[in-house]
Amino acid sequence: MKAPSFAYQKAANLEEAMQLMHQHGDGARLLAGGQSLLPALNLRLTHPQWLIDIAGLDELRGERLKGSVLEVAALSTHRELMQSDLVMRHVPLLALAVPYVAHAAIRNRGTIGGSLALADPAAEYPAVALACAASMRLKSVRGERMVAAADYFQGLYQTALASDEILCAVEFPVAQPGERFGFQELARRHGDYAMAGLAARGQWGEDGKLQALHLAFFALGDRPVLAQKAASCLIGQSIEPMTIRHAQEALDQDLTPPDDLQARAATKLHWAKVLLGRVLAEMALDKGASSDE
Ligand SMILES: Cc1cc2nc3c(=O)[nH]c(=O)nc-3n(C[C@H](O)[C@H](O)[C@H](O)COP(=O)(O)OP(=O)(O)OC[C@H]3O[C@@H](n4cnc5c(N)ncnc54)[C@H](O)[C@@H]3O)c2cc1C
Fold first, then answer.
1. Which of 53, 82, 224, 281 has the maximal Cβ count within 10 Å?
2. How many distinct structural domains can be found in the chain?
């Protein structure tokens, strides 16, 4: 199929992109890497009147360390993130997740901003943002605001972005001493969207016990979900077969995946428990990733 007809404008700078979004509102879509938008257009799943191309905007590129956060600009491609020393050192969970995003050709063009704006429930970055307590920098002609990941993802492909807003950057708190990270997903083939996944961040004390734990599951609901009951079972504990089993049982209260064409809800819950066991074992052995102390 071919895309429906639309008008196209390449924004010369961020200011112009914001003006154009303000002018065209709901009838406009931003074009970043095009790796989700162009297939959606060709399948006629979306019918914008305007495409505002922001791909050339240098002000939306790169990563910068700003005190206790790493700011990752929206047009950073998956490939750039995979090769970034700053990401590897300061946001190890993002570095663990990137190789699972799509295939090399898509990683060359697709962007973190596009992924977080689309908010596919099976995508990796939304869960990483939630587990890391990242914040999104949103801008429009009306001004700028920061939205915490916990408030940003609002439903199936729904975010806090207003129709005239541009996601300009994501701020990830930098990894702290004693933090460890784990990431796992189940997919039919490597690079496919996940059928179930888990991004985890834990803070270990010197006594070998967990002081804090953030378990962000994805592809198991309409948005990434923090498994708070399972995490609270593990706080103050060391990771052992018995504590892992308790946390896996607690997932029954945290997750309510839907039945769908891929699997029944009970099967998905089983996958989530398997992933939790694997990720916790990985983190306990410090085989995922840890902060650069
Ligand atoms: C075969 C295939 C497999 C894939 N597998 C995966 C996978 O396993 N995991 C995964 O996470 N993704 C996967 N993707 C999607 C890929 O990661 C996309 O790159 C990403 O979802 C969108 O990024 P983009 O830059 O291409 O955005 P675009 O396609 O340009 O835009 C996507 C949407 O976001 C909006 N948008 C883009 N940038 C901004 C911004 N800065 N502010 C506000 N709105 C914005 C656009 O208007 C559009 O609605 C896959 C894609 C394909 C085609």
1. 224
2. 3
Q: Are strands 28-31 and 50-53 parallel, antiparallel or unpaired?
A: parallel
The answer to whether residues 121 and 220 belong to one domain is no
What is the domain extent for residue 115? 58-173
75 and 165 co-located in one domain: yes
DSSP 42-80: HTTS---SEEEE-TT-GGG--EEEETTEEEEETT-BHHH
Residue 137 lies in a domain: yes
243 and 209 belong to one structural domain: yes
Alpha-carbon distance of 154 to 232, in angstroms, equals 24
pLDDT in tens, 246-290: 999 999 999 999 999 889 999 999 999 999 999 999 999 876 677
- Here the CATH number for the domain that contains residue 94 is 3.30.465.10
| pLDDT tens digits, one per residue of 206-229 | 999 999 999 999 999 999 999 999
Q: For a pocket test of ligand 1, which of 115, 161, 163, 183 has the largest count of ligand atoms closer than 8 A to its C-beta?
A: 115
Residue 104: inside a domain, yes or no?
A: yes
- Domain-ending residue, one of 122, 143, 173: 173
CATH number at residue 242: 3.30.390.50
Q: Please list the residues that pair with 8 across neighbouring strands.
A: 51
pTM for this model (two decimals): 0.96
Tell me which residue has its CA closest to atom 28 in ligand 1: 34
Q: Which residues line ligand 1 (CB under 6 A)?
A: 29-37, 39, 74, 101-102, 106, 110-111, 113-115, 117-118, 123-125, 161, 166-167, 191-193
Which atom of ligand 1 is found nearest the CA of 165?
Answer: 43
**68 alpha carbon to ligand 1 midpoint, in Å?**
28
